[in-house]
Each structure stands twice: as structure tokens, then as C-alpha cells.
Specification:
single chain; 250 residues; two-stranded antiparallel ribbon; 11 helices
């Protein structure tokens, strides 16, 4: 069998695009790329002043280490967090397409947004770890979208991605529809670092990757497991986060 030339592959790709044109991740309309111009404009990116601890947008720029009132009152288990997008009716569409349907055609685009949002966190990290799924859910779904995002975020950064260092050792019901308190109870003790992996984590600065930050319950539980394994610091980057009403900054 003769190998297919690059020119032939490009011709086949053009033919495929002509028969099945790429569709926007948001509207589903035909688009040149992952998003149409109007769909891109409809996304709300998190830029400007924000809380260094949780990535929440802030009304005023109080410096790079500023913390919102909520983080001052109850500091999260991670050190710093960043998100590319506000999780809303627009961003929910491509995120659920990735999470529930395994749609990967916009993966690198979304990971690039995360890299821009968390450039300094990636630079400081010793390793990147995705929030894992429990084995049963992974088998049923066939993929872990956080793992895909972690690998795509790491591309070109020269940072290792550690799969299997953090385990979801407890199978928990879906977090959807649960209150913040119930979410925290649901994932309490759900994560662990296997004994034979603990030395790998000791004194390392970890960048934890997930798709969405809602209440922080899942990420907090994952961070606790890494802290128990004596990680030096843990930062977080997500594709999108829920933005609550502005907290008064102290």
C-alpha cells in the first residue's frame, strides 16, 4: 500500500469540508473555523481586573494579588485560579458539546483561550494534572474532557501532563442540580493520590485543569488530595466559570 501524500490529504480535506462544511461550535451554522464572527462576539471572555484566588471578575483593579471578599472570608483550597470564559447560555453550548458529545473539533481553540488566561500559571507549573473521572464513568463515556483539555493546554509549553497521578477513587452522583453545600458533601473524599505516585507530587507546583468551575466543590476536593500528598502549591485553570454577583472587595 502506498502512503498518501500531503497534497492528497489536503485535497481530501477540502473535499470533506465541501461535503460536510464545518459548523460553528455555538450556533451550529456553517462556519470557516470553529466559530463564526457573530458567535465569537457573543462569548464573554474574562479579562481585566479579577480575583487572583478564584478568577472572579472584579469592578476595580486592586493589583495582581487582589482577592475578592468571598475568598478573603473563605479561602479556596487552591492558590490561584483562572478561567477563559464566563459560563452562560452561549458558552454552555460548546462546553456541553465537548463534555457530553465528545466534540473535539474546537478543542485546540478552547485550550488556546485557556492558555491565554493562565499564561503565568502555566509558566510557573511543574506539571499539569486533569481532574479525573471515576473509572466507571470513564468506561461508560469513553473519554475525559478534562484530560483532553489538559493535553491541549500543555501543547507547546514543555510542561508534562500527569494522567493517573490523581484518582477519583469514589464514584459520586452527578453534581448537576445540587446546592453548593450538597456539592461539597457529594465530592468529599472523592479523590486520592495513589501511594506509589505520592513522591511524584511532593514539593511540586501543580496546575489542575477542568472544564467548568461552578461552586469549586470538585476542584477543592481534588486540591485537598494533592495537598495531602504534599504538593507545594496548586493552581487551577478552567475553560469557563460561573460568575456570581460582585463581592464587595475588602
Amino acid at each position: 500500500m502506498h502512503p498518501i501524500s500531503i497534497q492528497t490529504k489536503r485535497a481530501l480535506l477540502r473535499l470533506t469540508d465541501a461535503i460536510w462544511p464545518q459548523r460553528s461550535l455555538v450556533s451550529g451554522e456553517p462556519a470557516q473555523g470553529a466559530l463564526s464572527a457573530s458567535d465569537f462576539a457573543a462569548l464573554t471572555f474574562i479579562t481585566g481586573a479579577l480575583c487572583n484566588r478564584c478568577g472572579q471578575p472584579m469592578d476595580y483593579d486592586l493589583g495582581p494579588d487582589a482577592a475578592c471578599g468571598a475568598c478573603i472570608a473563605a479561602p479556596p483550597r487552591w492558590d490561584r485560579a483562572r478561567a477563559a470564559l464566563v459560563y452562560d447560555d452561549v458558552s454552555r453550548v460548546p462546553i456541553l458539546a465537548l463534555k457530553r458529545a465528545g466534540r473535539r473539533d474546537g478543542l485546540q481553540v478552547m485550550a488556546n483561550w485557556m492558555r491565554i488566561a493562565a499564561d503565568d500559571l502555566i509558566r510557573d507549573a511543574d506539571a499539569i494534572i486533569p481532574v479525573p473521572l471515576h473509572y466507571h464513568r470513564l468506561v461508560a463515556r469513553g473519554y475525559n474532557q478534562a484530560g483532553w483539555l489538559a493535553s491541549a493546554v500543555a501543547r507547546g509549553s514543555h510542561k508534562p501532563v500527569w494522567h493517573g497521578v490523581l484518582k477519583r477513587s469514589k464514584s459520586t452522583p452527578s453534581q448537576a442540580g445540587l446546592s453548593a453545600r450538597a456539592r461539597h458533601r457529594n465530592v468529599s473524599g472523592a479523590f486520592s493520590v495513589p501511594e506509589h505516585k505520592r513522591k511524584q507530587v511532593v514539593s511540586k507546583r501543580i496546575l489542575l485543569v477542568d472544564d467548568v468551575l461552578t461552586t469549586g466543590a470538585t476542584l477543592g476536593a481534588a486540591c485537598q488530595a494533592l495537598k495531602n500528598a504534599h504538593a507545594a502549591a496548586i493552581d487551577v485553570v478552567v475553560l469557563a466559570r460561573v460568575v456570581r454577583e460582585r463581592d464587595a472587595t475588602i
